[in-house]
Amino acid sequence: MSNTVVVIGAGPYGLSTAAHLKARGLHVRVFGSPMASWAENMPAGMLLKSPPSASVLSAPSPGFTLDDYARQAGEVRLGGHDQVPVEMFVRYGRWFAGELVPEVEDVRVLAVDRQPDGFRLKLASGEEVRAAAVVAAGGMDGFAYVPEPLAGLVPQGLVSHSSHHPDLGKFADRDVVVVGAGQSAQESAALLHEAGARVQLLARTEKLVFGAGPTPPPHWQPDTPLGRSWGLYAVVHQAAAYRFLPASTRLHLVRRVLGPFGSWWLKPRLDGVVPVRLGRHITGARREDDRVVMTSRDGQGRVDTLETDHVLAATGYRVRLDTLDYLSPELRAQLTRTGGFPRLDPGLQSSVPGLYFTGIQAAATFGPLLRFTCGTRFAAPRLAAAVAQRHTVA
What we know:
Blueprint: E1 4-8, H1 12-23, E2 27-31, H2 36-41, H3 66-73, H4 86-100, E3 109-115, E4 118-123, E5 128-131, E6 133-136, H5 148-151, E7 159-161, E8 175-179, H6 183-194, E9 198-202, E10 223-224, E11 227-228, H7 230-237, H8 247-256, H9 267-270, E12 276-277, E13 281-288, E14 291-297, E15 303-308, E16 310-313, H10 329-333, E17 337-338, E18 341-342, E19 355-357, H11 363-366, H12 376-390
Parallel strand pairs: 1-2, 1-6, 6-19, 7-16, 8-9, 8-16, 9-12
Antiparallel strand pairs: 3-4, 4-5, 10-11, 13-14, 14-15, 17-18
Helix pairs in contact: 1-4, 1-12
């Protein structure tokens, strides 16, 4: 039996998990391209919602925070409530990989099958790998959600998800409607406007919500990496207990906590700058020539028609295990689920022994913390400890 542990994905959760597994003496192979999704799917000029202290990967020893990277690389050191540019975060993640997980293999995993003594993986390189355990850490890949009325125009290039554009400058001088009300929608609208697009923001909510800006002490609510409140304190510090809540409550909180709203620093970039259409529910969309004609309805049933060159769906992500097509159909069929998420044990192991999930895929078990990079501090050491306890190292 192989003693190899395979990590699929080289984003913040994959790299953090691999670093902790290696620190425990396990033989680890990591497949993916370090920080590829952040570099290729996030728009240039984007600023992270999380402050610098929360924009960190988890390492098994001190010295590998964003601030440590900035100091060593000679970059401007950020603190407090400074905004973190996505480009800096990508450089930090790749530095982390180079320091702690330099053996990442930029190879795609095509298939994972369960075997009597573990797992067999087929790689795009043609190699077959045997593994005692597999960690699925692919981040948001495959989970981008586009509302059904718009989905039919995606193949025609008239509708796209916000995660598919590293450069919004290509929409300069074009009409674009951004759909959504959260951070991604608000920031995409701001970036599109600043890139020269004629942009409008359309959302179901009756008003745009912005987070509270920095406030001087004293504070009556505790500060956390996700914000200042007692509710967020519980999300961050009681993630292990989250799994004991009723399934319906867990799913509701995963979808609603910290969303939809935008960071406080987005408000001046949107208010009075970008036209907004609020309280609108999209009812249909069709192609006319090379443009989109979209219909929407308000709370009183009034229908509105809007014509545009492109619709950008900043409508978030929905975990659906069936989109993980590298897992064999037989393997997916064995997974016990909570909603579209895998049901996990305290060590992030699924109902298939030896198959682990982390990041957003673990959020229905451990809460909204796992939607954010700072959740690596909770998930990576816990998962590594569970794998080390279960699997023998030769």
